[in-house]
Amino acid sequence: MPIVSDTPLARRVSGKPRVHVTRHLVPVVEARMAELFDVVTNTADAPLSRDELVAAMRDADVLVPTVTDKIDATMLEEAGDRLGLIANFGAGVDHIDLAAARARKIIVTNTPGVFTDDTADLTMMLILSVPRRLGEGSRLVRDGAWTGWAPTQLLGRSIGGKRLAIVGMGRIGQAVAHRARAFGMEVTYHNRRPLPGAIENMLGARYEADLDKLLAEADIITLHCPASAETHRLLDARRIALLKPDAYIINTARGDLIDEDALIVALEQGKLGGAGLDVYAREPAVDSRLIALPNVITLPHLGSATVEGRSLAGEKVIANIRFWVDGHRPPDQVLQGWA
Question: One of 20, 23, 254, 310 is an active-site residue; which one?
Fold first, then answer.
C-alpha cells in the first residue's frame, strides 16, 4: 500500500491498511478488524516461526504481534520498508527491539492498563491458594485419595497479618496492594523510587529501598517487574537463600525474573514454603520438577485471560492503528528511545 506521508511519528496510508495479526483474538475484535482493515490472520493460531514473522512484516503496513513473537533488529532489517506500525497486543514490549524499530521509523504501540485488574486478581488468587495448599487439596480429591475430614489434614497458613513484599509497584503492583490490604496483610514494596506519600497511605504500603532486606523479612513475595537486563534473574540463588524457610513466591509477571533452577532446588530441599507460578523461564515449556512439587501451583499464563480484558486490549490495538492510519500519534505509542 503506498505511503502518503512519512514522519518519525506516523505514516499515513491510503485506503485500508494491510494488517497481519499473529494469533487469533477474541471474535468481536477480529470482526471489527475485518470491517476496518485488510486483515491477514494466523488461522493455525500457533506461534509464527522467525521466517513467517519476517514474511508477515514484509507484506504488512501494520503487524499485530503478541508476547509469543520475538522481534529482533535483524528481523526488522529483513522486513523491508513497508511496515510502519507494530501494534502490540499486550502491555509488555520486551519481546520487541524498540531501538531497532525506532531506527527504521517504525512506531510501536501497546495496550497498557487493560490487564491490570485481571492480573492482580490472579495474583491475589495465588497469594490465597498457595499458603492454604489448594493445589494439594485439589489433587487429593481428583486422585480419589481423600478419606474424609481430619483435624490435622493439609494444614496451611492464614494470610491475615502476614507481610507481603511487592517487587515492582506499577499499576499491577498497586492493584495487588489494594487487594492485599482488604485481607489484612502488611504490605511492603520495593521499586526504583518510592510512590508519593498519598498513594502509600491509601494502599497502606511501606517502601523498602533495600531489596535484600525486603525479601528477608517477607512472608510472601510477589513479582511485578518488567523483563529487562536489570531484572533478569532478579531472584537468583543468593536472594532466594535470604528468604524465610516458610516464605512463598508468587510470579505472574515474567519467567526470567527468577532463576528457576535455584527456585526448584530450594523447594526440593524444603527451604521455601511453596510457589505460585503463571510464567516460566522457558515458556511454554514447564520444568517437570516444578509440576511434581506438591507445594507449587503451576498455571498456563492466565494473568490476562478474561473475555473482558482481551476485548479491551483489542479495542486499544484498533484505536492505535486508526490513529496511525490517519497520520496522528497513536495514543499508546511506546516512547522509549524516541526523541
Answer: 254
Residues whose CB is less than 8 angstroms from the CB of residue 123 and which lie 6 or more positions away in sequence, other chains included: 172, 176, 222, 224, 250, 252, 303
Tell me the pLDDT tens digit for each residue of 180-210.
999 999 999 999 999 999 999 999 999 999 9
Strand order in the sheet with 296-298: 205-207, 186-190, 163-167, 220-223, 248-251, 274-277, 296-298
| 280-288: long-range contacts, CB 8 A cutoff, minimum separation 24 | 280/255, 281/255, 281/256, 282/255, 283/255, 287/260
H/E run at residue 39 = strand 38-41
pLDDT, one tens digit per residue, over 232-267 is 999 999 999 999 999 999 999 999 999 999 999 999
Exactly one of 136, 217, 283, 315 is catalytic; name it: 283
- Based on the residue annotation, tell me whether 254 is a catalytic residue of this protein: yes
24 is catalytic: no
